Amino acid sequence: MPAGMALAMLLGPLFGGWRAIWLAGAAFAVLAAVAVVLKVPAGAAGRAVSWRNLAAEAGSLIFRRAPVLLALHFALYAMMFFAVLSFLPVLLIERIQGSLALAGLLSGLATAGNIAGNLLAGLLLRRGVDRTRLLAAAGFAMGVAALFVFLPLLPAAGAFLCCILFALAGGFIPATLLSTAAAIAPRADLVPATIGLLMQGSNLGQVLGPVAVGWVISTVGWQGAAGLVALLALLAVATAAALDRDIRPLWRPGG
C-alpha cells in the first residue's frame, strides 16, 4: 500500500488528469486479478462450511475486547497517516514555494519511508520485541514528528525529514497489528474475519482523518492539525497500553 501511494505521487504528474490516473489504477487491478487466477493455487477440498454459524461467530467479534481494540488502533493510525500524507503536498508547496511536481516527488519519497517501517517491524517481531511497546512507541513518534511537520518550528528541510520519520514510524503499526490479529482470532477459520474487522478500522480512519484535518485546517490553521494528530497519537498510545493484557500472554514462554 505505501509503495502504491508513493508511486502514485511520483508518477501522478505524468498523467493528463485524475481520470487517467484512475484508469491506470483500474488496469493494475485487472492485472492483479489475472495474476491471482494464473498463479494462486486452488485450495484443497475441505469440510463443508456452515455459513450461518460462521456469520454469527464473525459478527460476535465486535463484542470481543482484543479485536475491537486492534481495529480502533488501526483506525487511529490511519487517521494520523492519511491526515498528514493527504495534505503533505499542499504543505510542501507552501513551505518550499515549489511546483506541484516537486511536492509530489517529495511526498512520494516521504511515503516510501512507510515501506521500510513495515519491513523493519517484521524483523523486530521475529526477534520477540514487545508488541504493545512497539505500537506505543510508533504512535508516540508519529505524534511528535507531526508537530514538527505542521508547525513552523524547523526549516523546510527539517520538516521534510520529520515527514520521513513520521511515515517510517507509522510503518511499524500495520505489520504488528496484522500479525497480532491472526494470533488473537478465536479459531483458525475466524482469522479472515478478525483481519477483516481490523481492516474496517483502517478504512474508517482513512475516511475520517483527511476530513477532520481538512476541517481543522480551514477553521484553525496548520497548528490545529498538529494538535489533532498529537491527540490521536496519545489515544493510540493509550490503546496500545489497553491491549497489553490481551496480547502479552500470547508471546510469553508457555503462554
Q: How would you sum up this structure, described in words?
A:
By secondary structure, the protein is mainly α. The protein has a single domain (54-251), classed as Growth Hormone, Chain: A (Up-down Bundle). 80% of the residues lie in helices and 0% in strands. The chain contains ten helices and no strands. It is globular.
Short description:
The protein contains ten helices and no strands. It has helices at 2-11, 18-39, 51-59, 65-96, 100-126, 131-150, 156-170, 172-184, 191-219, 222-247. α1 (2-11) runs antiparallel to α5 (100-126), α5 packs parallel to α7 (156-170) and α6 packs antiparallel against α8 (172-184).
CATH topology: Growth Hormone, Chain: A
Q: What is the molecular shape?
A: globular
Q: Which CATH architecture would you pick? A: Up-down Bundle
Profile the largest sheet: none
By DSSP (H or I, 4+ residues per run), the number of helices equals: 10
What is the structural class?
mainly alpha
Q: Give the uncertain stretches in residue-range form.
A: none
Mean pLDDT reading: 85
| Intertermini distance | 33 Å
Order of helices and strands: HHHHHHHHHH
- Percentage of helical residues? over 70%
Q: What is the CATH superfamily label?
A: MFS general substrate transporter like domains
What's the β-strand tally? 0
Q: Indicate how many domains the architecture comprises.
A: 1
Task: Report the radius of gyration as a whole number of Å.
Answer: 20 Å
- At the first level of CATH, what is the class? Mainly Alpha
Strand content bin:
under 5%
